[in-house]
Design a protein that fits this description.
The chain is α+β, with helices and mostly antiparallel strands. It is 29% helix and 24% strand. The strands form 3 sheets. A 5-stranded antiparallel sheet has the order 10-1-2-11-12, covered by helices on one side. Strands 5-6-7-8-9 form a 5-stranded antiparallel sheet, covered by helices on one side. The protein is globular. The protein starts with a strand and ends in a 36-residue tail after the last helix. The mean pLDDT is 91.
Length: 275
């Protein structure tokens, strides 16, 4: 399994991925899920992949040379000359379809699903930052202010903190911290997601970035975050009152007599109906 997250903010973009893959409990390996495409002062793009590893690697390889026909009769469109991130995402979608055309039938015959999901984002000079979630059919959707992030892979454990913290106005460093907490929560609950982690932070309109880091479990910042987050969660949990069943002893009773919905009916005899 894997877990990747891409975040689009007013201030920039944040990308984080793990690097664990497994084909059963006795075959766990490390493969990087992130690739960065950068041409300084012109374009900066990041691709995150999840799903079947052989498909992901094929898509990444073909993307380097994939071309789309220019409807205006110009030179073919690639990720290196696309004038918009939308066009670059179209090239990526075409690369996915090309791999499917090549391998789809063989995979189906072998009983293997054509399974890949991707996050693709960045900025090309002349337009603003954009972030896309790309599916196994090569189609995609784009992040909006209402949905400023995408997740792929084992996403459920890391989603709550993203929903509670992120807004378009969130500062980049705070968003990076949020992404790492999201990843830490996922690794805590799912052993199929694991280190090392790749983190990239991109500042808007820079068209390059030196904020790239590979994080292992010995990383001092990650060790601090992992320890503090667990401790603070426990402190918050302990600060909450235990449930009180008698409203005479608390202002926040759990069981109230005038509740709109009544408790479950207990079955006390064999002849009683469930409904």
């Amino acid at each position: 399994m894997t877990y990747c997250v891409g975040i689009k903010l007013n201030a920039g973009l944040v990308f984080l991925s793990d690097s664990r893959t497994n084909a059963g409990v006795d075959h766990i390996s490390t493969f990087r899920k992130m690739i960065v495409y950068e041409r300084p002062n012109d374009r900066f793009m990041v691709l995150l992949t999840a799903g079947n590893l052989s498909i992901s690697q094929s898509v990444r390889e073909i993307l380097q040379v994939e071309q789309l026909k220019d409807p205006e009769g110009g030179e073919p469109i690639t990720i290196w000359n696309a004038r918009s991130m939308f066009d670059a995402a179209r090239v990526l979608g075409q690369a996915v379809r090309r791999v499917y055309e090549r391998d789809g039938e063989s995979l189906k015959y072998a009983g293997v699903e054509f399974n890949i999901s991707m996050i693709f984002g960045g900025q090309i000079r002349g337009e603003g930052m954009r972030l896309f979630s790309v599916y196994s059919a090569g189609n995609f959707i784009e992040a909006t202010p209402e949905t400023p992030y995408f997740q792929i892979g084992e996403s459920k454990y890391g989603k709550p903190v993203l929903d509670r913290v992120l807004t378009p106005d969130t500062p980049l460093d705070e968003a990076a911290k949020c992404a790492l907490v999201s990843m830490d929560s996922t690794m805590k609950s799912n052993l199929s997601v694991g280190p090392p982690l790749d983190l990239v932070v991109y500042e808007a309109n820079q068209f390059q970035s030196d904020r790239l880091v590979c994080i292992d479990m010995a990383n001092p910042y990650y060790r601090m975050l992992h320890s503090s987050w667990g401790q603070k969660l426990r402190e918050v949990f302990d600060s909450l009152d235990d449930p009180v069943w008698d409203d005479a002893h608390t202002d926040t009773p759990l069981k109230v007599t005038d509740a709109q919905n009544k408790p479950l009916k207990k079955i006390t005899r064999p002849e009683e109906k469930l409904i």
